[in-house]
Amino acid sequence: MCSVMRKGIYCLFSLLIICALELEAQTNILWPGDANRDGKVNSKDLLYVGLGYDQNGPPRLNMTTEFVPIPLQNPWGDQFPVSPIDLAFADFNGDGLINEIDIAVIDSNFAKCHPDIVPPVKDTLNLFGQLAQLCLLLPDTVLSGDSVMIPIIFESPGFPFLPDTVYGISFTFNYDINLTQDAKTSVVIPPLSWMGDPGNSINFAIIRDTSMIYKTKSVPEEIGKIEVAISGKDLRARSGTGPIGFVCIVMDENISKSGQTICRSMKFSFEDVCVISKEEKIIDVISCEDSMVVCGPPQPCDSIQNLQVELISAKKAYIGWDQIDAANEYQIRGGVVGSSNVVNLSAPAGTVFQQVTGLSAVNSYWWQVRPICPFDTTSWSHKDTFNTACPPPDSMMVFGDFNFDNAILAWSEVENAVSYQISGRQLGANTVTKVKTPDNVYIAFPLQAGTQYEWAVQSICNSFNSYFSLLSDIDTFMTLGGSSKNRHIIFPNPVRDMLSVELLYNSETPIDIHITDISGRTYFQAKYDASLTNKFNIPLQQVADGYYLLKITSDHGTSIDRLLVR
Question: What backbone torsions phi and psi does residue 144 show, to the nearest 5 degrees?
């Protein structure tokens, strides 16, 4: 029986050893940047770099600094004074030495988290009720737009009567980003302070970005956070009082509403403050909350300069204006041009347009707008006018066909038109082709030679293509046939400065080129020797924009083309 008991005890002991080895294997997982193994990379990890600074041990086989789990196969054998953590956990880059290079890993992996947490072991230094103090030195009042440098004041416990006790400090500094130009916030750690100099101290500071994993949803986005840590690297305790850092902020320029100066309180505080001795013992600390007053001059209640109108239909329109930041609301008034009746409307702050209804077709309207600010009201804007009419073009023309498979369609501009829609088809056909164009000229292509077409145009009087006019009168034209007897090319059409004419036949006699306007007034006339060349350039720099007729006379007869100069 004793033999059986001995076997059972031996098995149980073996099982405990195996479990202990497995637990040790699980806990010896290094995550680069997390020296105290609390599951996250933050400013506290600098304190452990300071405690182990210049210590060395076996380098790692895997020397990566990426935030990945790394089994610690070669522990150094030495631990931090209180925490049961091997010094190798502060060698983030795995080169076998704890130094400045490891601080850079805290920065690159800052705010990252992992699940391999070791429960903390803490020991508090007994200083008989004496506390370290962490406070701010704030001005009473600043103005919007001011740049403010805020000293962070740290005092060792019982200074100047207690001996040196402090080795390192880490903390988070909180501030209200709603009153600052947060992109301009910075933190400065002075090279010389009672905490040390570059020869015997190290430091770390970072403005915590709202996208970092460590900033959870429980932290309001309007609270800015700066993490700071300062530590010795020589295992020598310190004592003293004075600034150990400065936070530089630039106040927002627009914190007030119109009409009077507005002042707001801006709060500052510390959290997660940790002060340690060179023996890694916790030193109790008291931190202060403080505030300063930020005052802003009145925002101007400017009058509105830019007005816009977008027609919806003959009876509806959008009216729009520039936003005035100080406005609580907007007043709008308007009516029919020439009428004494005035309609008054209002729109809430933040609105920059208003839909007006009940308009009548083919009427002209006027309107104005002004902002209403908390303590001020400006004058009305200038009067803007618009009319709801959306007529079709009243004149249409077809211009020169130079390839026998296209035609240039043109029509008169319409005042309210944003664009146009052309409808066209072969004469007698059932299928209608519709094309939208922003201009009042369109090249129809491809067409069939010797074919008759009909077309009409509609005006489109808003940018979202919902307000169409009626169709214009229907116009017809016929493309030239396939015979080459009188064929020629004119290009370009429309034309600006120089028109090219090319005959597609031989002429034994000089040709006459004659350009007139619609009324018959001559703008250009010349004779050309067609026996030498069949290409001619006609200068039109002195011809005003408009519609013209181009007449070519040769021994093959006379042809007339429509020409647009623009």
Answer: -60, 140
For helices 44-51 and 100-108, give the axis angle rounded to 10 degrees: 160
Query: Any bridge partners for residue 386, and if so which?
Result: 365
How many Cβ atoms are within 10 Å of 545's Cβ, its own excluded?
A: 9
Here the tokens at position 97 are: 């030495």
Q: How confident is the model at residue 9 (pLDDT cuts 50, 70, 90)?
A: very low
Is the separation of the CB atoms in 81 and 123 below 8 Å?
Answer: no
- Classify domain 394-479 at the CATH superfamily level: Immunoglobulins (2.60.40.10)
Tell me the whole-structure pTM to 2 decimals. 0.55
CATH number of 307-381: 2.60.40.10
131 neighbors 285 (Cβ within 8 angstroms): yes
Residue 36's nearest CA partner among 75, 76, 92 is 92
361, amino acid identity: A
Mean pLDDT over 541-545 rounds to 89
Q: Tell me, what DSSP letter sits at residue 31?
A: -
DSSP symbols for 42-98: STHHHHHHHHTTT-B-PPPS----SSS-EE--S--S-B-SSS--BGGGG-TT-SSB-
Sheet holding 511-517, edge to edge: 522-528, 511-517, 546-554, 557-565
Q: Are 235 and 278 in contact (CB under 8 A)?
A: yes
Note the CATH number of domain 488-565: 2.60.40.1930
* H-assigned helices in 88-185: 100-108
Q: If we measure between CA atoms, which residue out of 470, 468, 462, 466 comes closest to residue 319?
A: 462
Q: Which of 1, 65, 6 is nearest to 32 (CA)?
A: 65
Judge whether 299 and 254 are in contact, CB under 8 Å: yes
**CATH pick for 132-296 out of 2.60.40.680, 3.30.450.90, 1.10.287.110, 3.40.50.720:** 2.60.40.680
Q: What is the pLDDT of residues 134-162, one digit of tens each?
A: 999 999 999 989 999 999 999 999 999 99
